[in-house]
Design goal:
Oligomer: single chain
Structural class: alpha+beta
Radius of gyration: 18 Å
Distance between the termini: 47 Å
Helix content: 10-25%
Number of strands: 12
Shape: globular
Bound molecules: biotin
Strand order of the largest sheet: 1-2-3-7-6-5-4
Strand content: 25-35%
Length: about 270
């Protein structure tokens, strides 16, 4: 563990949060393959008991959704994974990505100046000004105990010249939005504290998640082209379904429920 990291991270936490996530449940790596892979391995080996956190300054094999790579230069962004014991009823698990987006979005909004709001893009990306600054990869494992691993890549202090060419036109960072650097560990502390306070309670009634999402829904009311399980559909985004799915309204066929998508384009 990096010297001083735990005290820096937990500086503004309450005693309850410190008890839930004591020092032996936090790992910091200067460089690791992937924080998600590392945490999943720890769970598989039976080394994880409750909420746990793996943080890295750099990943050599960072993973995104749909098998994409997640690349970031060392020491500028937040790259971390939180292990959450899956205690709530399985019907509520589909809301975990949206709850994660909410908890991360709330923490980010609390440090943005001028009352800026993040945008939530289904299924669980966070945007500022129409560009992605945060991606979330939720993976689950059932043995030896059921856990969800929420992996977060959040562009904090990344400069324009550091974005890989393939995402240059569509990505942003808090540095770019705010015009100044933010303290990564302070922000991480806020996010972890949000999880410790709200998880799993917030999954038992999803109204709070839906309300938050509706006010920030990037796709709602927009004309979209969605590729899902190899088929392409067009329609207007109509918010979240009862299980957190994307609702897509087609003038001729009514409202279609999208459970997963390879690609979502604005038309
Ligand atoms: C996406 O938008 O495709 C999700 C990206 C998730 C990236 C984060 S970085 C920390 C954690 N470790 C990984 O390998 N992936 C997630």
């Amino acid at each position: 563990m990096r010297v001083g990291f735990y005290s820096e991270l937990t500086r503004d936490w309450g005693e309850t949060e410190r008890r839930v996530l004591p020092e032996d449940r936090v790992q910091f790596h200067e460089s690791v393959d992937s924080t998600n892979t590392s945490l999943l391995d720890e769970i598989r080996e039976g080394n994880v008991e409750g909420v746990s956190l793996v943080v890295a300054d750099h990943q050599t094999g960072g993973r995104g959704r749909r098998g994409d790579r997640w690349e970031a230069p060392p020491r500028v962004n937040l790259l971390f994974s939180i292990a959450l014991p899956l205690e709530a009823s399985p019907q509520s698990w589909s809301w975990l990505p949206h709850l994660s987006a909410k908890l991360i979005g709330e923490s980010v909004e609390s440090i943005l100046t001028g009352g800026s709001r993040v945008e939530a893009k289904w299924p669980n990306d966070l945007y500022l000004g129409g560009r992605k600054f945060c991606g979330i990869l939720v993976e689950t494992i059932s043995n030896p105990e059921p856990f969800a691993v929420v992996g977060v890549g959040l562009n904090v202090n990344m400069k324009r010249c550091q974005f890989p060419p393939e995402i240059e036109a569509t990505a942003t960072s808090l540095l770019e939005w705010e015009g100044c650097e933010s303290n990564r560990w302070y922000l991480l502390g806020l996010i972890v504290r949000g999880f410790l306070t709200d998880y799993p309670k917030a999954l038992t009634s999803t109204e709070g998640i839906v309300d938050w999402y509706e006010e920030r829904d990037y796709l709602r009311g927009r004309r979209l082209r969605v590729t899902s399980v190899g088929r392409t559909f067009e329609g207007v985004g109509q918010g979240l379904g009862s299980q957190g799915e994307l609702l897509l309204e087609d003038e001729d066929r009514g409202v279609r429920t999208i459970l997963s998508a390879e690609k979502i384009m604005l038309c």
